[in-house]
Amino acid sequence: MTAQPPRPPATPAQALSAMDDLIAASLVGQQEMAQRLGLNVTDLTCFGYVIQAGEDLLTAGDLATRVHVTTGAVTGILNRLERAGYVTRRPDPRDRRRVRVAAEPAAVARVHALYEPYYARLHTLFADYSPAETAVLTDWFTRATTLANAYREELREP
Q1: Quick one: 87 exposed, middle or buried, by C-beta within 10 A (0-12, 13-18, 19+)?
Q2: End-to-end CA distance of the chain, in Å?
């Protein structure tokens, strides 16, 4: 861990402002990453979930739930990802009516090659924090994600 000067206190308003800046930079960055990969942001997001699932292959319904789109919209997303060589569909061994989505290894390698330099920099940044501070960050990211998803669900209610 690199020795850092003490961090000045921050208010919730300052933290929210910094978070807004991070979200804006991430949204623009995701758009640029998607363009480099020949995808749109929603398709890249779905592909990210497919990668994250690993060997526990997701169904189209799983993806629809995670991205908050209809199963019909996911069919279009999967068609585009399949045509672009990012995924293949496999029959579900437990339910022949469903398919599972698998990432193509060459596509995973392309995505990792694009994201790895950024993630390496984030790992360097995390090294500036103690394990206890990293635990607080992890807790905050996890809880903020849960809060964001819950609020998004509220917005969908009539």
Answers
A1: buried
A2: 49
